[in-house]
């Protein structure tokens, strides 16, 4: 396996597990991953949030950790990367308002590069208008956005993932084992025990 260079879009109040775990897993298997956020530089941090289901009609949000970025957003050249990952949580709702985020996302979709998005991260894909004809999942509240953007929303348990070509999506962090495994397969990563 040759190590891949992965761009990871994150932002303030992105979901803690959906930021920390994928980042650490890509490093663990030997890939290079650059976590970036608009208006922030290498060494700056984002504040994460922890989403829990406490018996209410929707999830609650608690302050998570400070996650330190390891690359400058302004220096990103999408053509230098092999794949894109997008964290979920609240961050995608404002990240999708950044035109450069949209342009970067379109680069990966238009060039048929692997994309992994989780939870609300799919909001960036819908805002970039790249889901037309794609089968994908997301946090259920994002499902209508997928449909309105021309994608096929697939409802699956939170522990699952949906693969369509070289895209892999999952509803939430309980799906990490399947979501990350499927993304590693798409990347051609070989793990031997």
Describe this structure in words.
Helix content is 28%, strand content 25%. The protein has 193 residues and is an alpha/beta fold. It has a single domain, classed as Class I glutamine amidotransferase (GATase) domain (Rossmann fold, 3-Layer(aba) Sandwich). The strands form 3 sheets. It has a 6-stranded mixed sheet with strand order 3-1-6-7-11-10, sandwiched between helices. A 3-stranded mixed sheet has the order 2-4-5, covered by helices on one side. The two termini are 15 Å apart. The mean pLDDT is 95.
- CATH structural architecture: 3-Layer(aba) Sandwich
**CATH homologous superfamily classification:** Class I glutamine amidotransferase (GATase) domain
CATH top level class name: Alpha Beta
- pLDDT average, as an integer? 95
Structurally, the number of domains stands at 1
The helical percent reads 25-40%
Number of strands: 11
Are there runs of 5+ residues with pLDDT below 50, and where?
none
From the spread of the alpha carbons, the general shape counts as: globular
Largest sheet data: 6 strands, mixed
| CATH topology tier name | Rossmann fold
Give, in order, the helices and strands: EEHEEEEHHEHEHEEEH
Our measurement of the CA-to-CA distance between the termini, rounded to an integer number of angstroms, reads: 15 Å
């Amino acid at each position: 396996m040759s190590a891949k260079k992965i761009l990871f879009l994150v932002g303030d109040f992105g979901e803690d597990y959906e930021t920390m775990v994928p980042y650490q897993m890509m490093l663990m298997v030997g890939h290079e991953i650059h976590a970036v956020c608009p208006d922030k530089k290498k060494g700056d941090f984002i504040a994460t949030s922890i989403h829990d289901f406490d018996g209410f009609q929707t999830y609650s949000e608690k302050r998570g950790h400070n996650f330190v970025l390891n690359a400058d957003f302004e220096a990103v050249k999408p053509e230098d990367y092999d794949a894109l990952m997008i964290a979920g949580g609240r961050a995608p709702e404002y990240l999708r308002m950044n035109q450069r985020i949209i342009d970067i996302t379109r680069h990966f979709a238009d060039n048929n590069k692997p994309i992994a998005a989780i939870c609300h991260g799919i909001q960036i894909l819908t805002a970039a208008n790249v889901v037309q004809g794609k089968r994908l999942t997301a946090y259920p509240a994002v499902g209508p956005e997928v449909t309105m953007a021309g994608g096929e929303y697939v409802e699956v348990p939170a522990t699952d993932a949906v693969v369509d070509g070289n895209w892999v999506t999952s509803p939430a962090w309980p799906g990490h084992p399947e979501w990350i495994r499927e993304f590693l397969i798409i990347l051609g990563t070989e793990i031997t025990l």
